[in-house]
């Protein structure tokens, strides 16, 4: 079945696209409203689904596509619309004073085909109820009302058109898949059992902000030494990286809860580079090997994405996923950002009291030996240092970075997004799912992961999952679709966090990524005082 899904700039259109694909077995064609400027745009589709928004009749430019869909012979399912196009210009509007998402209601229906197989009463996430003209246009019939008596669904008496102010794609809507199944049954009945075969096509959407793979494949070898002892992170950080022009300390874990299991202590060696972005200026890459600084196209994250796509690291099996890559910080409210490609690092595994000394080398006759020598010297230095005190860990996730003349310090880090080397993404956010704001956030996260993840993989394993402070922190999970990478996942997740203005983290050349929100305190050399980026840990 070939479905056209009109994206009316709705925040949940990819949740809807995944639901349609799950039910129908074929991905819908997602087209933005602005691109439906041709009368023939709907031709060749078996049915049309219109996402929320879709303009008003007094704004003909953004309402025209909806009017064309309503005037076509194909079945139409309109969800969360501002108006229902009617005959002779009699359009049905809804009340705009009610919240457009997150209103959990008990819905009662009257046996229309739209709700075939659905209990007479069910729970659904609803938008504003329709404010229908009086008298009701003769071609429309009320199909369902919410608990307050408001109309949330109508059907056309003569045409295969259903209009609803509920969100079948929401995580808390019951029987949402059944509504899509019923719409597909309507489509087959109207077509007399004949349906088109979807042609091979691109995925739902291209990875957001992705760039093509950069030319010039780079293969690095990761040399590893293992020290079986507890070490003092601060002492190791100062001993090995005090003189480094750029250095990073970042705690992380694989579970997202509790004390940090791992600490990455890293600095720049001969293969390192620093990519920096400042407001109103193109990103600049500074190389450690003496090459002149280079301005790059696109954003800092475009550059990191290109580099990760062309870099490969050959490393032994490790209990963590960072084996060289980019560590850094980003202030979303100002656009300031710095990321170091680190080729020398120490990773401390606090659970097993094991320390991993690692150094990258390029594919050349000289560099492997130099990397091995650095590892051996680092191991010798670590053995001379005292071990970490038993009470030396605070339990808080810490970060300290010195990049491009800025010293960044933060604590109480909380994971925002994690991407493993197999392409599985986990995004977490503290919410209260029972209220509208919490529900909106969870559905937004699902939608944004749906932009870059394969159909059928996006899920919320435990909506009421709580952290060690009893805050509700649901995890949204999905697997990256072909062609998408860690940069795409991070961009998608961070686009939902409007008040999250600071984060630190890493992107590994293994394809993994790990980012956390944080309070960022930035002190710049040559400047008086301290600049505090106004952000709170989330």
TrEMBL record:
Instruction: Name the domain of life this protein comes from.
Output: Bacteria
**Which InterPro entries does the UniProt entry name for this protein?**
ADC_synthase, Anth_synth/Amidotransfase, Class_I_gatase-like, GATASE, TrpG/PapA_dom
Q: What is this protein called?
A: Glutamine amidotransferase domain-containing protein
Question: What does the organism's lineage look like at the top?
Answer: Bacteria, Bacillati, Actinomycetota, Actinomycetes, Pseudonocardiales
One Pfam family it belongs to: GATase
Q: Which stretches make up the Glutamine amidotransferase domain?
A: 4-183
Which keywords belong to this entry?
Glutamine amidotransferase
Presence of keyword Hydrolase: no
